[in-house]
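Incident log, support desk, overnight shift.

02:14 A customer reports that sequence design results differ from what the structure should imply. Their input is reproduced verbatim below. On-call engineer (initials T.W.) acknowledged and began investigating.
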């Protein structure tokens, strides 16, 4: 039934221009957000997200509002996450953290950069003398990320790295989800598995010959503990500020992340929490 519905929606939307299709999806998103958060509305929202994921896979360029002014993003019409970006409502707590914690001339790692919304914001905050390393595991999304960096004229201080940050170096399997914001090493029911290069943060820092790393954002869909295990040297030697989105639906991840941070003498502060995720910040306690 689901597959038939997806084929039907994809076939119908294949003849609709991408810009019109995105505008329609955007209006549906606005209507959904205006409705009260009740059980029926939640189910309707899930159905709308599924239909959105079933749109024909087209891309559009959009001017997107942000706390640092307008940025230009290539977005997918079949990705619910990208509509939230276009509306400027996706995880605003992350943008607020960037505003308060990034300074001109710093080096920032964006681990799980997706199409680059936060990497672009970070680049504007740290300025021409700073450096953003934007890492994205899905090769197709990493290509969009690179296009967005170029579209915003940030090639000089944003470096795109395609690959999955984890606790070892080698090939890893990435579960590609209907929406790019769900794709990850632990995604349970992927549309397909793709093999990508895996590496640790410590190895990445050595490879790029970074003398410092001031701040790190981690959004890796359940692999947060694996990332932290692979950045012991970086955390010990230079990182002063961490922002981690912890995916609490993955058994044991929350406890493991907090244990690692405690073991490495980082003080943790909770920013927000819902049924599926929470955002925490961490800074050295000594």
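02:41 Re-run completed on a clean worker. Output:
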């Amino acid at each position: 039934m689901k597959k038939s519905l997806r084929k039907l929606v994809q076939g119908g939307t294949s003849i609709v221009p991408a810009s019109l299709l995105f505008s329609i999806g955007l209006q549906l998103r606005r209507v959904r957000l205006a409705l009260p958060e009740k059980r029926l509305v939640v189910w309707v929202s899930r159905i709308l997200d599924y239909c959105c994921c079933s749109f024909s896979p087209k891309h559009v360029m959009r001017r997107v509002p942000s706390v640092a002014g307008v940025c230009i993003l290539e977005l997918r019409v079949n990705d619910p996450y990208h509509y939230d970006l276009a509306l400027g409502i996706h995880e605003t707590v992350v943008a607020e953290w960037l505003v308060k914690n990034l300074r001109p001339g710093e080096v920032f790692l964006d681990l799980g950069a997706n199409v680059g919304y936060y990497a672009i914001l970070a680049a504007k905050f740290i300025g021409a003398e700073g450096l953003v390393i934007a890492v994205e595991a899905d090769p197709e999304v990493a290509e969009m990320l690179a296009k967005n960096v170029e579209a915003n004229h940030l090639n000089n201080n944003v470096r795109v790295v395609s690959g999955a940050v984890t606790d070892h170096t080698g090939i890893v399997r990435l579960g590609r989800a209907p929406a790019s914001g769900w794709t990850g090493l632990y995604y349970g029911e992927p549309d397909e598995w793709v093999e990508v290069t895996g590496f640790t943060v410590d190895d990445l820092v050595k490879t790029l010959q970074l003398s410092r790393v001031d701040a790190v954002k981690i959004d890796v869909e359940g692999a947060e503990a694996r990332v932290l295990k692979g950045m012991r040297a970086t955390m010990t030697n230079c990182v002063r500020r961490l922002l981690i989105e912890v995916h609490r639906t993955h058994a044991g991840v929350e406890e493991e992340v907090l244990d690692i941070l405690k073991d490495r003498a980082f003080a943790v502060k909770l920013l927000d929490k819902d049924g599926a995720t929470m955002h925490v910040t961490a800074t050295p306690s000594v």
